[in-house]
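TA notes, week 10

Several of you asked for a full example with nothing omitted. So below is the full record: structure tokens for the whole chain, then the designed sequence directly under it. When grading your own attempts, check the secondary structure regions first.
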């Protein structure tokens, strides 16, 4: 889509717009009522970051994949998500239960990072 739209950055914009229309159509077909503003106002601040994080992720992948290759880019994504999730677990962030760091978890994270390095060198 980025090639057709004229730049890599416009590809995700078009795809997000199509996704938004599809989700709105699904909600209308299912008769799901929209949330009231007062309900949305009760959301914690971090709940609002999902759209920004999603946009950052898609843009980063679109820009990095041609430079690093798809395998390296996806290895970085997987390792980054795993490392980030370990931090969320360890501190119980965003309302999650605390699951402390263990030697096995740290070793798993280290192996993911090693996997990124090996894929990049390969």
């Amino acid at each position: 889509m980025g090639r057709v739209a004229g730049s890599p950055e416009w590809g995700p914009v078009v795809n997000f717009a199509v996704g938004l229309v599809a989700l709105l159509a699904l909600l209308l077909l299912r008769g799901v009522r929209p949330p009231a503003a007062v309900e949305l106002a009760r959301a914690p601040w971090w709940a609002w970051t999902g759209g920004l994080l999603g946009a950052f992720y898609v843009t980063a992948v679109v820009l990095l994949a041609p430079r690093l290759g798809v395998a390296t880019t996806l290895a970085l994504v997987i390792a980054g998500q795993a490392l980030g999730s370990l931090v969320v677990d360890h501190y119980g962030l965003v309302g999650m239960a605390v699951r402390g760091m263990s030697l096995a978890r740290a070793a798993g994270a280290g192996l993911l990072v090693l996997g990124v390095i090996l894929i990049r060198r390969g």
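The radius of gyration is 19 Å. Use that as a sanity check on your answer.
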